[in-house]
Fold this protein.
Amino acid sequence: MNDTPGSDERETIADFFIRHPLWEDALALVLGTAMVALGITFYSHAGLLTGGTVGLAFLLKYLAGWSFGAVFFVINLPFYALALWRMGWAFTLRTLCAVGLVSLLAELTPHWISFAALNELYAALFGGFAMGLGLLMLFRHRASLGGVNILALYLQERFGFRAGAVQMGVDAAIVLASIFVVAPEKVALSVLGAVALNMVLAINHRAGRYMGVS
């Protein structure tokens, strides 16, 4: 019997932290990035946008016709320095893998599925939900999609700000700026989609609520 003061409390707290094995982290990376790529496919087919580096990649795709996957990968390169400095090697490597997978799957998914008809409102909402669920999987396994995701996670861990709230503010600003690129009704639907995406994060990803670690 351990009579050390506070030992029972420490053991009880430790029981709440469940370390994910490597295979769970790998599976979460694949499933999470596949969900994000599905949402991107919805948005691309409907001509919508979202926030963050994904939104910037959409803007360049619509403006210049460049490959979404290649642009998305390149845009994220500067953010790895912040990830390495503030979040460590493990988080940075997982994020690099996640960004690479999304870049690849975003190009491949349209060849695997097609839409005879896709309602734009449905695409905005459920594309946003799909991306939100994908990001939630990545966040809970100590990964992200770079860019604003890294900043949002850092602010949550350092200052306790909700990652979803930070992401929502930045995403809304990027989507509103797209009014010069796409039709106003597309912008309105994109704002709705950004809200749907970030609601998933704001409701389900709060500091201290989820105790799984990698």
Summary: The first helix runs from residue 7 to 16. The mean pLDDT is 82. The chain has one domain: 22-204. The chain is about 75% helix and 0% strand.
